[in-house]
Design brief:
The complex is a heterodimer of chains A (about 140) and B (about 550). Chain A is globular. Chain A starts with 5 loop residues before the first strand and ends in a 6-residue tail after the last helix. In chain A, helix 2 crosses helix 3. Chain A has one domain: Rossmann fold (3-Layer(aba) Sandwich), CATH 3.40.50. The mean pLDDT of chain A is about 90. In chain A, strands 2-1-3-4-5 form a 5-stranded parallel beta sheet, sandwiched between helices. Chain A is an alpha/beta fold and about 140 residues long. In chain A, about 40% of the residues lie in helices and about 15% in strands. Chain B folds into 2 domains: about 400 residues, Methylmalonyl-CoA mutase (TIM Barrel), CATH 3.20.20.240; about 60 residues. Helix content of chain B is about 50%, strand content about 5%. Chain B has 23 helices and 11 strands. In chain B, a hairpin with a 5-residue loop joins strand 1 and strand 2. The longest helix of chain B is centred in the C-terminal third of the chain and has 23 residues. Chain B is globular and about 85 Å long. The model of chain B has no long low-confidence stretch (mean pLDDT about 95). Classes of the chains: A alpha/beta (about 140), B alpha/beta (about 550). Chains A and B meet through helix 1 of A and helix 5 and helix 19 of B.
Chain lengths: ~140, ~550
């Protein structure tokens, strides 16, 4: 495998159900990537700061109880911070009719219940590589 | 377990007959057949007989319903006398939305009510200080006595019990008491339960409920028990919750072990304050997941009853049999439900509910089939209640008490689960008790390992889930639309709340918050001041903020 990706796995909003985010973090670590894991209940500004400090390629937001509804606010904050090369994925419970709310805001993928470990790892790797490419092409530094 | 030497059995010919069956079984069994284990890791044999359980310890280990050790049930009559309470956990939208839903459910057979507050409230915040899109999507926005009054409009507080999902500092009970006072209902007529009073389970399983620091919550819980004992004597101030831990990945045996260890911690904390165990334990209740692993769940609950009776009597020194009874609410397990082919969940919930009934639970919530996708719609909530009605009225499940008692399998499994549970409790004891064991992350690590092991079994296909890793379909059908509160109604609710705050007597609010802070700084009862503050219009967010300031922020240890 080439350079490991740096992935931030987090939860924003008010829900604390973290079984899924902990499992996804374990899957990605097992696949050789560097995972920055946060507790639930993160403020959007804290996620942006962490993404900057840790120079991540992908941010995975876990949402089990409607916190996806404020993911568009996160996308805007990332953009404002110059982090629009970072790919954002959302995993968990997102009703079908609310997926466009996320994709229109720039979320790259939504992983629903039943997504396999391979789907998630492959998806993150594909997105992470393109994020790394974009960063390099705009003259960023390699971590 | 008390495996019996077959030579002790007064059954001439048993050994030869068993050998014949074993030979036939081995011969006919497919070569690729696996060893079976339940979710707690106990190996399950293909057949159980009198060499696994022979009934000679009946009086010590089972006894009769209503008598220690209560393995067969905590009341002499069980469902012949009174069936379980149907208590659906409900929370959505504005207090008016909630009121409409509980009236609907009561009309459809619910016999008690519960209130789940909005996740923003769980985090200790008022509706005017959080992102608007999240309000009321996962619970009802209740931040004041006025809100509770709207939520409980038309509900007679003197005759219907009201469970509140109400972690420390228990503002929802304070608001219920505010409503009771307005309506002239004496506090000793108010019945119900402080669900989610179990701060340790929140700390461990990282649900949405964590608000105050561990030491602050520890003190508040004891204050709450002490206050209720004096002022709201028919209220259950403690609900020890196994559900969060099992949902987070603990096995059924781990869940029961951690939960009983938590109950010991709370009882000992109250006793250290000088309370007599017989004054408090009769008001301890438990709250569990009921998974689809039916026999394992039945054994879990039967073993749990037996262990608690022994602990209450021998370890905690309770003399009143009411203190020894393990009263529990069961909720059908959401983790077992799938977003794929969601209608299949109706079948899963029915099986889980049968397990709960066969376990002798005291009250039950059945999940709606859209649980894995959204808060229930009116139609899915109706089916969930109807499932209980069908099981109670049509299935003849209530005719016989502990109908699985005496099954060789169930009795042997109950003994084995008891051993597993006791081993978990011994691990917790060795770590210095539950409070210490979660402070060090031990319990979180054990749960995380079990969650990963369970996921690995699903990924390898060892544990099958229809629609997920077998019998998948390309089209899972049209999922029910998610429940979202009406934005205009919610905006008005927030607006009215801001107007209400401006119209209050600020002097009263300041005085009440001052008293609350002083109680927290000193050693008088903090919950008493929470109630006083609620009565003069102090809001939920204001109370939690003041106590966070004095007692420390709730920032659970996260073990990734």
């Amino acid at each position: 495998m080439s350079t490991p990706l740096r992935v931030l796995v987090t939860k924003i909003g008010f829900d604390g159900h973290d079984r899924g985010s902990r499992l996804v973090a374990a899957f990605l670590r097992d696949a050789g990537h560097e995972v920055v894991y946060t507790p639930p209940w993160q403020e959007i500004s804290a996620v942006v700061t962490l993404a900057l400090q840790e120079d991540v390629d992908v941010i995975g937001v876990s949402s089990l109880a409607t916190d996806h509804l404020i993911v568009p606010d996160l996308m805007e904050a990332l953009c404002d911070a110059g982090l629009d090369h970072v790919e954002v994925i959302v995993g968990g419970i997102v009703p079908d009719n609310e997926i466009p709310l996320l994709t229109d805001a720039g979320v790259a993928r939504v992983f629903g219940p039943g997504s396999s470990r391979e789907d998630i790892v492959d998806g993150v790797e594909e997105l992470g590589r393109s994020a790394q490419q974009r960063k390099l092409s705009r003259g960023g530094f390699e971590a | 377990m008390t495996a019996v030497e077959s030579t002790q059995l007064a059954l001439p010919g048993f050994d030869a007959a068993k050998q014949r069956w074993e030979d036939a079984y081995t011969r006919q069994l497919p070569a690729d057949s696996d060893v079976k284990r339940n979710r707690s890791g106990i190996e399950i044999k293909p057949l159980y007989g009198p060499d696994d359980w022979d009934g000679t310890t009946y009086l010590d280990t089972l006894g009769f319903p209503g008598e220690a050790p209560y393995t067969r049930g905590i009341y002499p009559t069980m469902y012949r006398g009174r069936t379980w309470t149907q208590r659906q956990l409900i929370g959505l939208g504005t207090p008016e939305d909630y009121n409409e839903r509980i009236r609907f459910l009561i009309d459809n057979g619910s016999t008690a009510i519960s209130l789940l507050p909005c996740n923003s409230g769980f985090r200790g915040l008022d509706c005017d200080e959080v992102p608007f899109p999240l309000l009321g999507t996962c619970g009802t926005v209740v931040n004041s006595v006025d809100h509770m009054d709207q939520a409980l409009a038309g509900v007679d507080l003197a005759s219907i019990s009201t469970a509140m999902n109400d972690p420390t500092p228990f503002t929802l009970l304070a608001y219920v008491l505010g409503v009771a006072k307005r309506r002239g209902v004496p506090f000793d007529k108010v019945t119900g339960t402080s669900n989610q009073s179990d701060y340790i389970s929140h700390y461990v399983a990282n649900h949405m409920f964590y608000r105050l620091s561990q030491p602050g919550s520890r003190r508040l819980l004891v204050d709450h028990v002490e206050y209720c004992r004096e002022v709201v004597p028919n209220w259950n101030p403690v609900s020890v919750v196994g559900q969060h831990m099992q949902q987070a990945g603990a096995t059924p045996a781990e869940t029961m072990g951690f939960t009983l260890s938590t109950a010991i911690q709370y009882a000992e904390d109250c006793m250290a304050r000088g309370m007599d165990p017989d004054e408090i334990l009769p008001r301890f209740t438990f709250f569990f997941d009921v998974s689809i692993s039916l026999f394992e769940e039945v054994a879990k609950f039967r073993a749990g009853r037996r262990i608690w009776a022994r602990i209450a009597r021998e370890r905690l020194g309770a003399k009143d049999p009411r203190s020894w009874r393990f009263k529990f609410h069961g909720q059908t397990s959401g983790v077992d439900l799938t977003a794929q082919q969601p209608l299949n969940n109706i079948a899963r919930v029915a099986v889980q509910a049968v397990g709960g009934i066969l376990s002798g639970l005291q009250s039950m919530h059945t999940d709606a089939y859209d649980e894995a996708i959204t808060c229930p719609t009116e139609e899915t909530a109706r089916i969930a209640v109807a499932t209980q009605n069908i099981l109670r009225e049509e299935a003849h499940l209530c005719d016989v008490i502990d109908p699985l008692g005496g099954s060789y399998y169930v009795e042997a499994l109950t003994d084995q689960m008891e051993e597993e549970i006791l081993a978990v409790m011994a691990t917790v004891d060795a770590a210095g008790g539950m409070y210490e064991a979660v402070g060090s992350g031990l319990v979180q690590r054990m749960i995380g390992q079990s969650a990963l092991a369970a996921q690995n079994r699903i990924d390898r296909g060892e544990e099958k889930i229809v629609g997920v890793n077998c019998f998948q379909t390309d089209d899972d059908g049209v999922p029910p639309p998610p429940m979202r509160p009406d934005a205009d109604a919610m905006r008005k609710h927030v607006h009215d709340f801001i107007v209400f705050k401006e119209a209050r007597s600020q002097a009263d609010v300041d005085r009440a918050l001052g008293q609350l802070r002083r109680a927290a700084q000193g050693d008088t009862n903090v919950f008493e001041q929470v109630v006083e503050a609620a009565l003069v219009g102090v809001t939920h967010g204001e109370i939690v903020a003041a106590l966070r300031d004095e007692l420390g922020f709730g920032d659970p240890l996260v073990v990734a």
